[in-house]
Design goal:
single chain; alpha/beta; Serine Threonine Protein Phosphatase 5, Tetratricopeptide repeat
């Protein structure tokens, strides 16, 4: 043990009251649960990572690189990173230090144990233990344990005190909610967004101020096409933004101000760049910046940062493929767009949004039979919310092809579903489409009737109002068109 401590002293990893210079890499094994209580299966691993990531001194080997090494070792990416597997990864990557931790139960006591391991020899060179009397004290016990680990790795007490916030403040005081949220992260990595939503909803039901889970829900609902719930959770994020770590804050605010929600690109760029400055190998930050560059029309930058994100973080490769496809589409390269959408679909087969994009690219290319086939096939596996959307696409599609009766039929079916689901804002679009159909057929009374219904049902952000203004202007009713513009 003395030899190991001496070597680590020379490495600058283990010296009390050390400097603020970032340490060499450490790898963190999954938290071992020896209690038999399932609430500790994933929650403590996530809690340990979140708590240690608050340090600007501890240099943690990132999860996406672990996945890459596991693949090279011909192991599954969902392989549990127990102590032995962590040591095997560390030896391949020349990482000098591993941290393993566990929870045991002794009578009424819960015992949290951490081991700092010298990778080369496998020798435990520092061990710490914290005992707590009840389950409600486990997260505060974890805070205490992490401070000990950070000090043992050479971080000064001043830095630890300055950057440490309790896990219950930056996540949740509910271990059960933290366990559910951690399960949601794993589902999201696999592209199983509905399953991620299900467990995150349960987490938020247990703790309505759990900001990380709320942010996850907002974005995952966006991915499955439920915009109403996406906005509902989005509106809850900003008042809770201080209930996350500083590092998590930049990522969440980039998403908050980005094109999916607030569309405040200056602020979104600011937080994305800040995240990359702090974490240049952060795949999420790179992908976010690529996404923002695409919306700003900086296509070369968008493609470059998507490729960087793919290179460093295989977990988000599906999103990067999607955004690369969007970029090529905006560049007028539909074949390249289609290729990347299909690559994304292989990774996330349940993500229906990609099917919509593929159908639209075929439409752009003039491959109308393919567009029709995809949209009709989606109808067989869609819920009512997605059926509304598909009817809107098919109505516009058949109108474009001059198949007026089919267009009208899908508009009426869409209206029926909107009323069943109590979605007047969505109904406004179908009323607008019917108004346009009858205007082009010069049946002006019917056109005006549907236009009025569309105006009545329109809500913020008033997409239909601008479209209806054009409809009335084309019909020669300038006074009505001007009133609609004033309303906007």
């Amino acid at each position: 043990m003395l030899r190991g401590l001496a070597e680590l002293f020379l490495l600058g990893l283990l010296f009390p009251g050390g400097s603020g210079i970032k340490s060499d890499l450490v790898i963190i094994a999954d938290f071992a649960n020896f209690t038999g209580e399932s609430v500790f299966d994933n929650s403590l691993s996530n809690g340990l990572q979140i708590s240690l990531r608050q340090s600007d001194f501890v240099n943690i080997f990132p999860g996406y690189k672990i996945n890459q090494v596991l693949r090279r070792m011909e192991l599954q990416e969902d392989q549990k990173l127990d102590k032995n597997t962590a040591l095997a990864v560390a030896r391949r990557e020349n990482i000098p230090i591993a941290i393993s931790a566990s929870i045991n139960q002794l009578g009424s006591l819960y015992i949290l144990t951490s081991n700092i391991i010298e990778v080369a020899s496998g020798e435990i060179i520092k061990q710490q233990q914290v005992s707590v009397k009840k389950i409600e004290e486990i997260l505060p016990g974890m805070d205490e344990l992490v401070k000990m680990i950070r000090k043992d790795l050479g971080e000064s007490s001043r830095l630890i005190n300055r950057t440490s916030r309790p896990l219950a403040e930056v996540t949740t005081a509910s271990l059960e909610a933290l366990e559910l949220y951690t399960q949601g992260i794993e589902f999201e990595k696999l592209g199983k967004y509905s399953e991620a939503i299900e467990v995150d909803e349960k987490a938020v039901a247990l703790d309505s101020t759990f900001a990380m889970a709320i942010s996850s829900l907002s974005y995952n609902y966006k991915k499955v096409g439920d915009h109403q719930k996406a906005i509902y959770y989005h509106n809850k994020i900003l008042p809770l933004i201080d209930k996350v770590t500083v590092k998590e804050r930049n990522s969440i605010l980039t998403m908050y101000y980005g094109p999916n929600f607030e569309r405040d690109y200056d602020k979104a760029f600011y937080y994305a760049k800040k995240q990359i400055e702090e974490h240049p190998d952060d795949g999420v930050a790179l992908a976010n910046l690529a996404h923002l560059a695409m919306f700003a029309g900086e296509y070369a930058t968008a493609l470059e940062y998507n490729q960087k994100a793919i290179a460093v973080d295989s977990i988000y490769i599906g999103t990067c493929y999607n955004n690369t496809a969007f970029t090529y589409g905006l560049m007028g390269k539909p074949d390249e767009a289609l290729r990347y959408f299909h690559e994304s679909k292989k990774i996330r087969p349940d993500y229906m949004e990609i099917d919509y994009y593929i159908a639209q690219v075929h439409w752009i290319k003039g491959e109308l039979d393919s567009t029709e086939r995809i949209l009709l096939s989606l109808m067989t596996r869609a819920d009512n919310s997605n059926r509304i959307r598909i009817h809107s696409y098919l109505c516009a599609f058949y109108y474009y092809r001059g198949m007026i009766e089919r267009a009208k039929n899908h508009a009426q079916l869409g209206i029926e579903l909107c009323r069943l689901e109590e979605k007047p804002a969505e109904e406004a679009y179908f009323q607008y489409l019917l108004s346009e159909i009858y205007r082009c057929r010069r049946e002006m009374n019917l056109s005006s009737s549907y236009a009025k219904k569309a105006i009545e049902r329109s809500k913020i952000p008033y997409w239909e109002i601008s479209l209806l203004g054009i409809t009335f202007a084309k019909a020669g009713k300038q006074d009505i068109a001007e009133k609609l513009l004033e309303r906007l």
